[in-house]
Write a structure and sequence with these properties.
Helicase, Ruva Protein, domain 3; N-terminal domain of MutM-like DNA repair proteins; 4-stranded antiparallel beta sheet; 22% strand; binds zinc ion; 284 residues; alpha+beta
C-alpha cells in the first residue's frame, strides 16, 4: 500500500530522527520478514553500524549504514517504521525493534506481514528482489516524455502498464487511479490506443499527482503513518480512489468500481470514457 509519496515521506521524517545514530542492538520477533542474511547474521551484522543516509528507490527505503552496508526495507501492504525517543509500546504486530545507543528506538510494525527487509553490502544491492529491475523514478529527469511515449507503444492495458515497477518505479493502486482520472483516461484502455496528446497529458498527470501527494505527505487510506507516527493528508484530496457510488467532483456522475488484475479500480465513466479513439500516430 505505501507508494512513492508515502515512502518518500517516511524517508524524510526518519532522516530528521535517525541520521548519524548508532545501532546498539536489534530484536527480531518475526524472522521470516528478513530476506537476507538469516536473522542471526542480521542481528550480528547490524550491531554498531551508524546511519549514514536514507534513500528511496521506487517503494524501497534504503538506509545507508557504515561499513558499506545497507538496510533495505519494503513495507509491503501495511508495513510501518515508527521512531520514538523513549521505549515504544509494542503489540502483536511489532516485528522488529532497533535500539540506538542514545536509548531511542525504531520499530517495524506490519499487520499483514508482506513487508521484507534485507541487510546487504553496497555491491549486493542488485540482488535485492525487484530493486535492480525498477524503471525510472517518475519525478526524476530520467523520466522523459520521450521515454513515456515509447512505453505506451506496448499492447498493455494502461492501468497494468503504470502499475508495473519495471516501467516506472513507485506507483501503486491509489496513485494510478488518481493519475488516470486527472488525465481523463479510462483505466481499461490499451496503452497503444492512446493518442500522442493523451500520452502527453498522462505524462504530466503522473508528475502532478505525485508532486501534490509528496507535498501532502502521502495518503493515509488504511494504516499509513510516517516515521513520527503522523498521518498524511492526500486522502482528503483523492478524486476517485475508494469513492465508488459517490459523485465525481468534476461532472457529478457516480464513480464506478471495477476489478482489474484483482485490484479494485475506481474511475468516472463520463470523465474517463472508454472511447474507440484512433490508434497512436494517426492523430497529432
Ligand atoms: Zn466525472
Amino acid at each position: 500500500m505505501p507508494e512513492l509519496p508515502e515512502v518518500e515521506t517516511i524517508k524524510e521524517s526518519l532522516k530528521q530522527k535517525i541520521l548519524f545514530k548508532k545501532i546498539k542492538a536489534v530484536e527480531i520477533f518475526c524472522p521470516k520478514l528478513i530476506q537476507f542474511p538469516d536473522h542471526i547474521e542480521f542481528v550480528k551484522n547490524i550491531k554498531k553500524k551508524k546511519i549514514k543516509g536514507l534513500e528511496r528507490r521506487g517503494k524501497y527505503l534504503i538506509i545507508k549504514l557504515t561499513c558499506n552496508s545497507n538496510l533495505v526495507v519494503h513495507l509491503g501492504m501495511t508495513g510501518q517504521l515508527i521512531y520514538s525517543d523513549c521505549p515504544l509500546e509494542l503489540d502483536k504486530h511489532s516485528h522488529l525493534l532497533f535500539h540506538f545507543e542514545d536509548a531511542s528506538q525504531l520499530q517495524y510494525r506490519d499487520v499483514r506481514k508482506f513487508g521484507c527487509l534485507w541487510l546487504v553490502k553496497d555491491g549486493w544491492l542488485r540482488f535485492v528482489a525487484g530493486l535492480s529491475q525498477l524503471g525510472p523514478e517518475p519525478l526524476s529527469e530520467q523520466f522523459t516524455l520521450e521515454y513515456f511515449q515509447k512505453l505506451l507503444d506496448k499492447k498493455s492495458i494502461i492501468k497494468y502498464l503504470l502499475l508495473s515497477q519495471k516501467n516506472l518505479a513507485g506507483l501503486g493502486n491509489i496513485y494510478v487511479d488518481e493519475i488516470l482520472f486527472r488525465a481523463g483516461i479510462s483505466p481499461e484502455r490499451f496503452a497503444v490506443d492512446l493518442t500522442l496528446q493523451e500520452g502527453e497529458k498522462l505524462y504530466h498527470s503522473i508528475r502532478l499527482v505525485l508532486e501534490e501527494a509528496v507535498l501532502a505527505r502521502g495518503s493515509s487510506v488504511v494504516n499509513y503513518i510516517d516515521g513520527e507516527g503522523k498521518k498524511g493528508s492526500f486522502q482528503k484530496r483523492l478524486r476517485v480512489y475508494r469513492r465508488a457510488g459517490e459523485l465525481c467532483f468534476s461532472c457529478g456522475t457516480p464513480i464506478k468500481r471495477i476489478v482489474l488484475a484483482g485490484r479494485g479500480t475506481y474511475y468516472c465513466p463520463k470523465c474517463q470514457p472508454l472511447s474507440p479513439s484512433s490508434r497512436r500516430g494517426n492523430k497529432i
